[in-house]
């Protein structure tokens, strides 16, 4: 489920992925907090991945604990956040991700 769409300066999405489970109590607590951040960071693409339903994605992402938040830039993981996930720790990760989305890479000088 994609909650918000955005792109970084290269035109590729900078993704904040929330790996969650409907049966995990801690995941449910983090869910409302995660969803509340969507409108605050329009330059990021927020998505939720239900671990119970999308096991192939969970395996590919090497998820071993829930809840888990991973940030991807150009399909590469650049950061992850696991318990305890609270407003302060989530804001720190999202601010760093936002800062990454504004980085413009200069071409190498020849």
Describe the structure.
The protein has 110 residues and is α+β, with helices and mostly antiparallel strands. The protein has one domain (2-101): Glutaredoxin (3-Layer(aba) Sandwich), CATH 3.40.30. The protein is built from three helices and five strands. The chain is globular and about 55 Å long. Mean pLDDT is 83; it is low at 1-10.
Q: What is this entry, summarized?
A:
This protein has 110 residues and is of the alpha+beta class.
Cα-atom radius of gyration: 14 Å
For the record, give the distance between the C-alpha atoms at the N and C termini, rounded to a whole number: 43 Å
Tally the helices. 3
So what's the overall shape?
globular
Strand content: 25-35%
Order of helices and strands: EEHEHEEH
Rounded mean pLDDT is 83
Structural class: alpha+beta
Q: Specify the CATH class.
A: Alpha Beta
Identify the CATH architecture: 3-Layer(aba) Sandwich
Stretches with pLDDT under 50, minimum 5 residues: 1-10
**CATH homologous superfamily placement:** Glutaredoxin
Placed side by side, the strands forming the largest sheet appear as: 1-3-2-4-5
User: What is the count of distinct domains?
Assistant: 1
Give the biggest sheet.
5 strands, mixed
Any chance you could write out the topology, listing elements then pairs?
Layout: E1 2-4, E2 14-20, H1 25-36, E3 45-50, H2 55-60, E4 68-73, E5 76-82, H3 87-101
Parallel strand pairs: 2-3
Antiparallel strand pairs: 1-3, 2-4, 4-5
Structure keywords:
30% helix, disordered N terminus, alpha+beta, Glutaredoxin, 110 residues, 5-stranded mixed beta sheet, globular, single chain, 5 strands
């Amino acid at each position: 489920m994609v909650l918000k769409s955005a792109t970084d300066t290269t035109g590729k999405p900078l993704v904040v992925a929330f790996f969650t489970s409907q049966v995990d109590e801690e995941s449910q607590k983090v869910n409302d907090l995660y969803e509340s951040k969507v409108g605050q960071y329009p330059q990021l693409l927020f998505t939720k991945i239900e671990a119970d339903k999308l096991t192939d994605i969970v395996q590919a992402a090497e998820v071993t604990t829930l809840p888990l938040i991973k940030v991807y830039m150009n399909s590469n993981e650049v950061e992850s956040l696991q318990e305890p996930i609270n407003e302060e720790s989530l804001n720190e990760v999202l601010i760093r991700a936002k800062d990454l989305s504004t980085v413009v890479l200069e071409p190498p000088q020849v």
